[in-house]
Amino acid sequence: MPEETVETEPDQGRRPGRRWPLETVAVVLLAVTAVLTAWSGFESSKWSGEMSIAFSRASTQRIEAAREATTAEAARAVDLQVFGIWLQATADGDETLAQFARERFTDHFTPAFDEWLAARPLQDPGAPRSPFMLDSYVPPGEVEAQQADDRADAYFGDALADNRRGDNYTLLTVLFALVLFFGALAGKFDSERRSWAVLAGAGVLLLVGIGFLAAFPKIV
């Protein structure tokens, strides 16, 4: 007797001939996402480098500010000492010593002293208590120290901003990793409908990531 053959119908769930569009879209999505993931990692590392440079510059400016402040304090100490000699000599009525001390006032102290003396501090209770309280007294290094401090603050602010940008790109890398995960998972379902649904979700995440990537500042 001839053997009976049993015909089997192809698996309607998989339908191999109809899955190639899904696989093609998945491959394109994964390829694009892989490139964008690499780009996000590159940008994250570049911004981290910029952050380190900015922190280093801020530290250098802090050191410069401290050096200039030390110069200003040294100049102030000399002015205080000579001014103290002048005060003592004036109180003792020693005109020779007072004139000797006055001739040794520094160039940056003399304008403040003259302004203070013109305010008649001995007669006017509202006059400044000393030349050192006047805005005209600016020892060398004081302005430079403030400028260095301002530059340090600016560099520190830049470093914090660069750190945030690097963190944004790191989070974007995580988002693209999710796209890669769902894109690879899409081909594992027997149901074509489920595969397309997962792939569509991955596509939405990819578009969101591309939107963020376009908005973020870049270092090329």
Write a structural description.
This protein is an all-alpha fold and 220 residues long. It contains five helices and no strands. It has helices at residues 20-92, 95-102, 110-118, 142-185, 192-215. α4 packs antiparallel against α5 (192-215). The protein is rod-shaped.
Summarize the structure.
With 220 residues, the protein is an all-alpha fold. It has helices at residues 20-92, 95-102, 110-118, 142-185, 192-215. The chain is built from five helices and no strands.
Write the layout of secondary structure elements.
Blueprint: H1 20-92, H2 95-102, H3 110-118, H4 142-185, H5 192-215
Helix pairs in contact: 1-2, 1-4, 1-5, 4-5
Order of helices and strands: HHHHH
* Tally of separate helices: 5
Helix proportion of residues, in percent?
A: over 70%
Sheet with the most strands?
A: none
> Which runs of at least 5 residues are low in confidence (pLDDT < 50)?
1-14
Proportion of β residues? under 5%
Q: Which radius of gyration do the C-alpha atoms yield?
A: 38 Å
Strand tally: 0
Mean pLDDT: 88
Structural category is mainly alpha
Distance between the termini: 78 Å
Give me the oligomer status: single chain
Shape: rod-shaped
Which keywords apply here?
single chain, mainly alpha, disordered N terminus
